[in-house]
Amino acid sequence: xxxxxxxxxxxxxxxxxxxxxxxxxxxxxxxxxxxxxxxxxxxxxxxxxxxxxxxxxxxxxxxxxxxxxxxxxxxxxxxxxxxxxxxxxxxxxxxxxxxxxxxxxxxxxxxxxxxxxxxxxxxxxxxxxxxxxxxxxxxxxxxxxxxxxxxxxxxxxxxxxxxxxxxxxxxxxxxxxxxxxxxxxxxxxxxxxxxxxxxxxxxxxxxxxxxxxxxxxxxxxxxxxxxxxxxxxxxxxxxxxxxxxxxxxxxxxxxxxxxxxxxxxxxxxxxxxxxxxxxxxxxxxxxxxxxxxxxxxxxxxxxxxxxxxxxxxxxxxxxxxxxxxxxxxxxxxxxxxxxxxxxxxxxxxxxxxxxxxxxxxxxxxxxxxxxxxxxxxxxxxxxxxxxxxxxxxxxxxxxxxxxxxxxxxxxxxxxxxxxxxxxxxxxxxxxxxxxxxxxxxxxxxxxxxxxxxxxxxxxxxxxxxxxxxxxxxxxxxxxxxxxxxxxxxxxxxxxxxxxxxxxxxxxxxxxxxxxxxxxxxxxxxxxxxxxxxxxxxxxxxxxxxxxxxxxxxxxx
Length: 556
Ligand code: ATP
Ligand code: MG
Prior knowledge:
The two termini are 14 Å apart. α3 links the parallel β2 and β3 (95-97). Helices cover 24% and strands 24% of the residues. By secondary structure, the chain is an alpha/beta fold. The chain has a seven-stranded mixed sheet, with helices on one face. It has a seven-stranded mixed sheet with strand order 21-18-19-20-14-17-22, with no helix packed on it. The chain has helices spanning 9-19, 40-55, 74-86, 102-114, 125-131, 149-160, 210-220, 236-246, 269-277, 292-298, 302-312, 323-337; strands spanning 27-30, 59-64, 95-97, 118-121, 170-173, 188-192, 206-208, 225-229, 253-257, 260-262, 319-321, 340-341, 343-344, 347-352, 361-366, 376-381, 384-388, 408-411, 416-424, 430-438, 456-457, 460-461, 466-473, 497-505, 517-520, 524-528, 538-544. The chain has twelve helices and 27 strands. It has three domains: 9-257, HUPs (Rossmann fold, 3-Layer(aba) Sandwich); 269-339 and 468-544, CATH 2.40.240.10; 343-458, CATH 2.40.240.10. It binds adenosine-5'-triphosphate (ATP) and magnesium ion. Residues 31-33, 36, 41-42, 44-45, 228-229, 259-260, 269 line the site of adenosine-5'-triphosphate (ATP).
């Protein structure tokens, strides 16, 4: 696929930079703030940055942007590392923490002060906002703007040494209070905050602001192309100002692309946190969430996410991708990779009255007709089987070709059976269906079948079937009503997780381990739950059903 697609605009920019000799290598990074779990949007950024480094034979860094000590947690650092590795973005030993650069950032600020390009301000945060002006009016100069270099050096050192309370002083870049770009109106680059940092402890009571720290982190690491999302476009002049004035010889270049949005899907950290805290979902890796951990637990593969990112494209214009596209990608991937086995989600019994009660016959089944490498297996067959409740009807509508009294169907991989009767319990619910089989109709023999049947159903032999629990998922929010209600709360879908406890599969499911996946014929793709499954109670998450009306748009 990547051979055929046209080059995206970022590749075009990089080609140009290399051709003009601006850079002689490509060095990218993924810079998450460790304040939550990564989601599908981050996967796009990771795969884009990693993919570019690989494509150009360059390097890729994973860097934690841990400059903000209040929100960050080591739990998030570990989950992010696991997610990035799982996606296949190999950062090797190139793992960095922005907080390791605090000394160098401090020195960079001193460099700016010495150049007369930064000053210590006495204004409160409110006053600074007040002085900043608006889109139509220029800002006003800070009364401290003309402090001498010596005084600024002394005050900044005192800020570092803990002489001031939180908010009492800030360090501001001296740029242009009348710039049409408000980001350039003497932005704050350091603040006083008496906070313990998870990496540096109590060493610092001043912390750099994002717009100052981020370009420095990139420059320290020798990043060439700093790829970020569109909301930073207006910050680019400040990014450039920082790296130029601190004096880097071959500074990195920022390029923005549009964020990935998924239609009708909850991605906001704020909402997910609430769902987790209220116990509505089972943690950040609940299989209904589009966190990377959730998608993985659901049974998505790195390959399917890679294809999804490719197909959703890299662009400058905001757009939304649809969930059916993501589902298409996993279906296409597993269609080839997974074995197709028989499992019954809502069982009733089928008794073959003319089949010997004590006989077990092994029938041959191909694991995946589209992938001969997966080979074949044998499945036990006998007199008493489970079939899906919906594969029998007492009074069928037109065009129902499965079991009903008098009708004949094919039992997948086995024989033709003809329905002869059924039993109901006191409530009138069908419990058992009776039939007879025709020994001349065994599958897998080359001989021509004596007649044709229209329906084929799957089955499992009762005494050798593996019982398991199936979880059938839908969107956590009600798409019909819309994601949010009038109060801005989520419109939850009460059926987002349906649990079926009496499911039966053929013996091939026995011993399945976390993340193993199968196609259950006619029922969809399923994956062993990594948290709740055990040998005694295998729990299978439905990744996606088999059918969809979704069609890949024709290539343009
Ligand atoms: P969110 O606001 O969803 O919590 P974030 O931007 O705060 O995400 P960061 O940890 O700061 O999360 O982001 C790390 C990187 O991932 C940044 O380069 C950011 O631009 C990128 N990123 C975040 N969300 C998306 C998205 N939806 N699509 C593509 N890239 C994204
Ligand atoms: Mg962020």
